[in-house]
Amino acid sequence: MVKANGYPGYKTGVIPILESLGCNPDDIMSYDDYAAAVKEDSSIALSAILTPVLNLLEEIYTDPVNKVFEILPNILYFINNGGLQVCVENTAQAIFVLLDTVRPIYDLEFSLNLDLTQIIIDALAGLEINGEPVNLKIPFLYDFNMLTVGTVTPYTSKSGEKAYRLENIDQADFVTDYASTDPSEDIAESFTYFVLWDAPEGDAVWEEKLNFFYRYPELVEFRTQARARLGL
Predict the structure, then answer these.
(1) What confidence tens digit (pLDDT) does each residue in 92-112 have?
(2) Cα–Cα distance for residue pair 179/197, rounded to 1 Å
(3) Beta bridge partners of 165
(4) Does residue 10 contact residue 48 with C-beta atoms inside 8 Å?
(5) 92: three-class secondary structure by DSSP
(6) Which value, in Å, is the radius of gyration of the alpha carbons in the chain?
(7) Residue 1 in 3-state DSSP?
(8) For residues 68-94, b (16+ Cβ closer than 10 Å) or e, as one string?
(9) How far apart are CA 34 and CA 97, in angstroms?
(10) Could you tell me which residues come within 8 angstroms of residue 122 by beta carbon, excluding any fewer than 6 positions away?
């Protein structure tokens, strides 16, 4: 029997990923609760991860387009700042320890250089509802910064550590950070989201910008045709 000690993967890897995905905080077990529960019943190790993810998928199932666009900015913020890479490495740290142990005997290499953009694109492309493809395509995913909007806010993670996330996404003056760089880019970005999103119902500045385009029937017709081509 070989025992490989490493970082507490649930605390330093799983919890940050669940929080960045937008899982309901009430569904995520704290590290202390998780450790105590697993000590009593080892099956909790899996269900503690699956439960918040499955509940999130249920929310996406109910309103796929709006829910994806609601959680996507924070996911991209997390990825763009290296969070996913660090969490995966923390979770797999025991594997790295084992590889370092056997390397004098066997020459093994293990890389976790993830193509994160392609992972997201593939995941969205394969999204299905009732067995039917949603065909959710986001051609500008190659620039993460275009979608990371909101206020970076500190919070206490279920891991017990200080963490950061995007909040007030629906209160931003600009639909993306990139839109704030130039008035012409503000118009272009607003029009892009006018096409991609449902009509907003709030009174935030960015929502008023999107609703502006609905005043023009020709733009609404263009939106309808563009969404049909995108499979939205």
Answers:
(1) 665 555 455 545 544 444 455
(2) 16
(3) 153
(4) yes
(5) coil
(6) 21
(7) coil
(8) bbebbbbbbbbbeeebbeebebbbbbe
(9) 24
(10) none
- C-beta neighbour count of 152 within 10 angstroms: 12
Tens of pLDDT, residue by residue over 171-212, are: 567 777 677 767 777 788 888 889 988 888 887 777 888 888
82's torsion region: left (phi>0), alpha (psi -120 to 50) or beta? Answer: left
Whole-number Å distance between alpha carbons of 193 and 212: 12
Residue 38 burial by Cβ neighbours in a 10 Å radius (0-12, 13-18, 19+): middle
Are the CB atoms for 175 and 36 separated by under 8 Å?
Answer: no
| CA distance linking residue 8 with residue 14, whole number of Å | 9
In the block, which residue shows the tokens 């909040």?
167
Tokens representing 211? 């609703």
Contact 173, 205 (CB under 8 A): yes
Type of residue numbered 31: Y
Contact 12, 87 (CB under 8 A): yes
Assessment of whether the complete model's pTM goes beyond 0.70 = no
Question: Which residues have a Cβ under 8 Å from the Cβ of 193 and sit 6 or more positions away?
Answer: 175, 176, 210
